[in-house]
């Protein structure tokens, strides 16, 4: 017990020390390029005798450019952004109506693009930043801890939602003949093996495969429901609906989830050749594809099947054979997107809690540390997925907490920090100021309402017997 307390205390000191170093060394708003020096194990630092220069050299190892091209970064971004989020778009159209849903999809997509550009700009001004926690450390110790907590929450909850979706896919096309928990274990094993490479450039090809798979799967669903349209009889769909608070907030958070990859952006940028310049190019392509894809699948599927037949995830809507085929094709995307998230979370853990040199080291020790961290992330996420065995409510709860905070609150804070004293110098700055204010206002409304409605929905679901017990073997 004493050893555990001591270890926890040491990590707490490390977090506080790291944030303090960033805050003191990089408090200026002007871009500063730091010479890259080899880091050492943070636990070997003598906290009492280490000089200020030694402390600065410990955390200033990140300004050198990465080696991932913008094309590969685009593939990774596509896999991270367009995944299971698209599967709830028809349900969002059903909840609030086609016209409000399409307007919301386009508006939030453009807003996500602008807030993503803010992250690229902040990375340009502070090239030492490798993740969102580092960005918080530039500003204050408190923000370092808050962003670190949100980053971990994002990692584990996103992983849980992907594992849950994967289990649903396996269970569906197996026709409930095998225990669902077994499928979860299979997903963890496959995902762990795919997570062994530590660089995003090594996962860019499988990321492209994952993106192609989800596109094929969704269009197969769209074509399938169009072919089966006569079987649905008379269907009704609404251009404008009259939703209650729960449906409105649920639809908005589902759409937000589809654009909420911001927590991973700093990590992607740190491995890119052109960094913020090329990131803007990749992000623009990804957001254009995302907005178009979400509108076509969301509105298209909903209009064809109507209010009576819409389901979430949307792959469940067609006949069993088509739905099973769509799920099989979508599985690579579900797993690969989870792998990208594991890499982001694992890099944060190794960089900020252990030793950043282990990310590039080829020693056995570095490899086993990476394997242990990655396997731990997969295991914890699997436990969460079994404890929270539902889809829409998990998306809503996740979006209302980490997605809103990292995509809207945090990016606004970054912009305000980088533009102190010059927020109104020209029309562009004024426009970006308004974007930041809108982002904060949106987050202030969605976060508490989203959490409340999700928790109420979960409670009602368990009360009505809609969900099974944790780790229950459904076969």
From TrEMBL:
Source species, domain of life: Eukaryota
Domain Amino acid transporter transmembrane: 68-446
Signal peptide start-end: none
Compartment(s): Membrane
Record's compositionally biased regions (Basic and acidic residues): 37-58
Keywords, alphabetical: Membrane, Transmembrane, Transmembrane helix
InterPro entries xrefs: AA_transpt_TM
Transmembrane region(s): 96-120, 132-153, 173-194, 206-228, 248-270, 282-305, 325-348, 368-391, 397-418, 430-459
Region (Disordered): 37-62
Membrane topology, as annotated: Multi-pass membrane protein
GO cellular component, one term: membrane
Pfam families: Aa_trans
PANTHER family: AMINO ACID TRANSPORTER, AMINO ACID TRANSPORTER (EUROFUNG)-RELATED
Identification of the protein by name: Amino acid transporter transmembrane domain-containing protein
Species assigned in the record: Wallemia mellicola
The organism's taxonomic lineage, starting at the top: Eukaryota, Fungi, Dikarya, Basidiomycota, Wallemiomycotina
